[in-house]
């Protein structure tokens, strides 16, 4: 499929190593989130600032990752997924904990926020949850790419003779995030199945919260 010693493979590997690391991208996202929190929190409302900061950091991390990974070819995807500085279990743990803490903070803030002026906080809360959801599935897309391109290569059948790029792993990951199950891709690896199970459970938790918040908002509008 790929030859590690071919010029194209070496070029793809060199290009992958030049990309910003996940730690650098997360640091930038967190820094921006803190700035948004301080600006909005000090000038408007602390609760709204917290929700806006969570939405900003998750959104920057998720959108930045999509813009970075989407154009990659299969060769660059393979080289990037196998880079030496990638610690998949650590990255999964950090992003999952970050998403769950954000979810808990969002729910808490919305519950204790002033009931007479909730609309801005509700909008910011929904945006924060959606961006945290997008960040979570981006991380799992990268995780699946890493697991797929480990030796031996495989574990997910994309029903194509062409090797998969990050676009294929986005399809796989975000489909799980929305449907809580695989669609037209068969999983043949026990390790990948274990990750899929964790992924779908987290997706269900996020989906439940989003549905509950939506019902609450509609009920509040109808009451008023």
TrEMBL record:
Keyword field: Membrane, Transmembrane, Transmembrane helix
Transmembrane segments: 27-44, 50-72, 93-112, 124-142, 201-222
Domain of life: Bacteria
Coiled coil: none
InterPro entries: DUF1345
Name by which UniProt lists this protein: DUF1345 domain-containing protein
């Amino acid at each position: 499929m790929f030859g590690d010693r071919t010029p194209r493979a070496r070029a793809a590997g060199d290009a992958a190593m030049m990309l910003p690391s996940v730690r650098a991208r997360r640091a930038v996202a967190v820094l921006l989130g803190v700035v948004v929190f301080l600006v909005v929190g000090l000038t408007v409302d602390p609760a709204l600032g917290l929700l806006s900061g969570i939405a900003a950091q998750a959104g920057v991390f998720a959108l930045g990752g999509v813009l970075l990974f989407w154009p990659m070819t299969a060769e660059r995807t393979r080289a990037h997924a196998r880079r030496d500085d990638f610690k998949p279990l650590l990255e999964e743990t950090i992003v999952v904990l970050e998403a769950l803490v954000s979810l808990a903070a969002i729910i808490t803030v919305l519950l204790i926020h002033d009931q007479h002026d909730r609309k801005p906080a509700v909008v910011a809360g929904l945006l924060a949850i959606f961006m945290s959801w997008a960040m979570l599935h981006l991380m799992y897309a990268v995780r699946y790419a890493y697991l797929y391109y480990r030796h031996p290569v495989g574990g997910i059948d994309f029903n194509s003779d062409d090797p998969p790029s990050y676009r294929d792993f986005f399809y796989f990951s975000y489909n799980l995030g929305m449907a809580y199950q695989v669609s037209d891709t068969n999983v043949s690896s026990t390790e990948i199945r274990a990750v899929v199970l964790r992924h779908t459970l987290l997706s269900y938790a996020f989906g439940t919260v989003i549905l509950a918040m939506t019902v609450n908002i509609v009920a509040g509008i109808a009451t008023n």
